[in-house]
């Protein structure tokens, strides 16, 4: 029988709600991946990704697989056996970077910070001084497991000043907060479509600087992944009308990505960042009205991914289940050492709007009252209303 999924409101760590325009784009007629019209679309996607990343890098394209493949593409193309990479970890995804370094035959030097805190630049500087021959610094700009934003600009500058490459994960960052690849001098950057772009999962935008391209071109050994080898992929995603077949691109998914990027361009990058921040401030006000607190300090907190502390004695899984069953609302659980301690509430892309903020606060209030949590009914929504009124009057 055909599968008909329930209609959910997705306010977890991803995927986010898909804009209806993007769903319609998916349904357009499939054409060949070497059709001249599809080649034209590919060129437009590249230009739109350059806009989103704020870069002029020629090697900017969507990997035909999710963000994890974008991560692997960066590591397998740049890292060879014997290379040392300084890896910053303050959550789950820094740990995945470590695995990628080691699987590529490199050595990972770890700079560890507490989950919920930004990367400590002094610790990183010390690791650089202790490992002057390291090839790259790898870090997560927007850590999905904790809701922390680290200082990408400062980290990329440390890499440049010490003649090291920078490899940056901005899967949750792109379109939700500032990402300035050229301005920061980032060398290899990857993201995902299912977060603040509000596109369907399954595509990973990546971009490589000229310096990174030179490293890829002058490798001693072939890239160990044939599918992710940028030297081969650029034969398909390169310039000009003649393209060499590499793989069958996910045609309809790329229609969706094109539409998502078109929507972002229509809104404007700065306007998208401002919308995410405005809705975060309203959500924060509502959570405070429910007696809930945010894990991350305001100075390094992501507006699009909120780690919310679970009150003592509350069954956090039961709260999530109630939200899903009674409100068709999905929020996320904590990962790793934060499992059972936080909820992760996303306000990403199309899902970052006033209606969703109010739905979330209403539903959380009901779920907390059902577990006899003492709170003042209506206080959360009152604070949401006041926050929006304040921002509208600013």
Structure in words:
Substrate binds at residue 344. Keywords: Aminotransferase, Pyridoxal phosphate, Transferase. The modification N6-(pyridoxal phosphate)lysine is found at residue 195. Residues 31-334 form the Aminotransferase class V domain. This is Serine--pyruvate aminotransferase. By secondary structure, this protein is α/β, with parallel strands linked by helices. The protein folds into two domains: 20-266, Aspartate Aminotransferase, domain 2 (3-Layer(aba) Sandwich); 269-393, Aspartate Aminotransferase, domain 1. Helix content is 43%, strand content 14%. The protein has 14 helices and 14 strands. The strands form four sheets. Strands 2-10-9-8-5-3-4 form a seven-stranded mixed sheet, with helices on both faces. The chain has a three-stranded antiparallel sheet with strand order 11-14-13, covered by helices on one side. The protein has a two-stranded parallel ribbon with strand order 1-12. Helix 7 links the parallel strand 8 (165-169) and strand 9. The longest helix has 21 residues, at 269-289. The mean pLDDT is 97.
What structural keywords apply?
394 residues; alpha/beta; Aspartate Aminotransferase, domain 2; Aspartate Aminotransferase, domain 1; 2 domains; seven-stranded mixed sheet; three-stranded antiparallel sheet; 43% helix; aminotransferase; Serine--pyruvate aminotransferase
Could you write a compact summary of the structure shown?
Belongs to the class-V pyridoxal-phosphate-dependent aminotransferase family. The protein has 394 residues and is α/β, with parallel strands linked by helices.
